[in-house]
Design goal:
Layout: E1 2-7, E2 11-18, E3 21-29, H1 38-48, H2 52-55, E4 60-65, H3 71-85, E5 89-93, H4 94-103, E6 108-113, E7 117-122, E8 127-129, H5 135-138, H6 144-156, H7 162-172, H8 176-184, H9 189-200, H10 207-223, E9 235-238, H11 240-244, H12 246-255, E10 263-264, H13 268-276
Parallel strand pairs: 1-4, 4-5, 6-9, 9-10
Antiparallel strand pairs: 1-2, 2-3, 6-7, 7-8
Helix pairs in contact: 1-3, 4-13, 6-9, 6-10, 10-12
InterPro entries: ATPase_NBD (IPR043129), Euk-type_GlcNAc_Kinase (IPR052519)
Protein name: N-acetylglucosamine kinase
Amino acid sequence: MKLIAESGSTRTEWALVEDCHIVQRVFTEGLNPYFQTRREISRSVRLGLPELFFKKKLEQVYYYGAGCTTNEKKNILGASLVAQFKTPIQVESDLLAAARGLFQCEAGIACILGTGSNSCLYDGKIIIKNVRAGGYILGDEGSGAVLGKMFLSDALKGIAPKELVNDFYEKFRISANDVMESVYNRPFPNRFLSTISYFLADYLDSDYVYHMLTGNLRNFFVRNVCQYDYQNYPIRFVGSVAYSYADILRDVAEEFGVTLETIEETPMPGLIEFHALNIEEV
């Protein structure tokens, strides 16, 4: 039996897998070694997962996560998971999860649009090019966090429609001062910013919201997708924002001459298929 985990900054999906079949599937909070210590990660895993996950005899744990981009960060995650599962752990980035989940062993451009955003050119085995994501301050175009940041900036400066801003403050039960506190002084500001994208989804009939969303998605194509040889490879998307705004994402892609056939909410089904092939990982 294998345990496959895929974690963004907001949530982690865990799947106990026997051959190609999911024995049990659980969602817990997101993990990120850039924002959490080894001890905090261990505590989150132990308290978030059912006891069954720790009692099963596992051949291997495959963990893919946000922030797992260097050996140092991978080691933080790996040490935390080894302490909990007492079994071999393989830690890779959430970007490789997207590539393997979307393409398995085929070549293509894999894109993530969720709390954050990222992209890569994958040759069917490894990532051969990656336009640096930059995070929610310096990059993450097209993501939920950046969409939330754009709206809040407009709300605070009095640019966003007043009715929309009032609805936001009422539904979130916060004030402008609370917004500043959440962004600058509380943990995981990117998670807070990303939740606003779901609020905005109810206002797509507003020209303001529609143009802000399409502009954010165009920025992702211009600043990320177009940096690859994108006209000669299939392009596929994964992530909560890509999935929620799939129709609009397809329309924006068409502006760049791209037809999107695959937009998945999570890479897990493809990852299960990939690991069922028992490929010797690189």
